[in-house]
Amino acid sequence: MTYSINTNAGALVALQNLTNTQMDLAKTQNIISTGKTVNNAADNGAVWSIANTMTSKVTSLNAVKDSLNRASSTIDVAMSAGQQVSDLLSQLKAQALAASDTSLNTASRTSLNQNFKALLTELSTVVSNAAFNGVNMINSGGTTIYALASDSGSSKITVAAQSLALGGANVTIAAAASFATAAAASAYVATLTTDIANVNTALTNLGTGSNAIASQLKFVTGLQNTLNNGISNLVDADMAAESAQLQALQTKQQLGIQALSIANQSTSALLSLFR
Q1: d(Cα 248, Cα 243) in Å, to the nearest integer?
Q2: Residue 267 pLDDT more than 70?
Q3: What integer is the mean pLDDT of 70-74?
């Protein structure tokens, strides 16, 4: 065996092993601190790219959920107001029907007419205030909703506006309607019967749209959960295994330090040759 004071092969090997151990230790500590085995492209380029793409999709789906939730709330407001409109139309019909009785005196019919006009005013107020976030689906010229259905923005769910305004396509009775005779009141009975049927159809259409929105929201939420689980499977660390690895590397580091110390001391034995 050749002894040299210029080159300590044992120390070099011990130093290299210790350096490798410290690099592994730093990597394991980073995994434990972040909870991820892949934190950037340097860790695993292919996995990082896939996870990053999926993460972007999950983020985009949040916008889709927001759009669907806004649409759902807007439709809910419209349906609630629509139900109130239907109830008011039924009350209007009852007033007109009562006033169509030819045996009724003028004073009683006049009182019914006042109630009739008050109900029309209330109906108009309900319709004009049936807005959510500035969007009214049942007013005259109501807003049709186009809710996002996918993260690409190319797919949308359309829920058509249903005008329930007085004098419109569904509620045909005019805002200024009134009666002074039994015959005039009787004519409104038929009109209101048709209007009630129209409103019920409009509410059915809104209900169908609401169900479509709710179904898509359920799907998007489930898709997000699935994607998040997929991302977790790709990049999240097994903390129990990493903890065990950390302890092993710490022990290995301590042994490496001792080995390096011993290797460095070996050259001092050469001094005894000169004593």
Answers
A1: 9
A2: no
A3: 97
Angstrom distance (rounded) from CA 100 to CA 118: 18
Superfamily of the domain at 61-235: f41 fragment of flagellin, N-terminal domain (1.20.1330.10)
User: What pLDDT, on the 0 to 100 scale, is given for residue 270?
Assistant: 60
pLDDT above 90 for 8: no
Neighbours of 125 (CB within 10 A): 10
CB proximity list for 190: less than 8 A, separation 6 or greater: none
Whether the Cβ atoms of residue 173 and residue 167 lie closer than 8 Å to each other: yes
Distance CA(147)–CA(137), nearest Å, equals 14
* 117 or 45, higher pLDDT: 117
Q: Which residue ranges make up each domain of the chain? A: 61-235, 238-267
Q: How many CB atoms lie within 10 A of CB 31?
A: 22
Region for residue 35 given its phi and psi (left: phi exceeds 0; alpha: psi -120 to 50; beta: otherwise) = left
Instruction: Give the lowest-confidence range in 32-41, 121-130, 205-214.
Output: 32-41
Q: What burial class does residue 255 get, using C-beta atoms within 10 Å of its C-beta: 0-12 exposed, 13-18 middle, 19+ buried?
A: middle
Name the one residue in this structure whose structure tokens are 């460095």.
Answer: 264
Tell which phi-psi region holds residue 5, choosing left (phi > 0), alpha (psi between -120 and 50) or beta. alpha
CB neighbours (10 Å) of residue 219? 13
pLDDT digits (tens, 9 = 90+) for 78-117: 999 999 999 999 999 999 999 999 999 999 999 999 999 9
Average pLDDT over residues 172-199: 96
The number of beta carbons lying within 10 Å of the beta carbon of residue 99 is: 25
Return the SS3 of 272. helix
**Token couple for 158:** 């359309």
Burial class (CB in 10 A: 0-12, 13-18, 19+), 203: buried
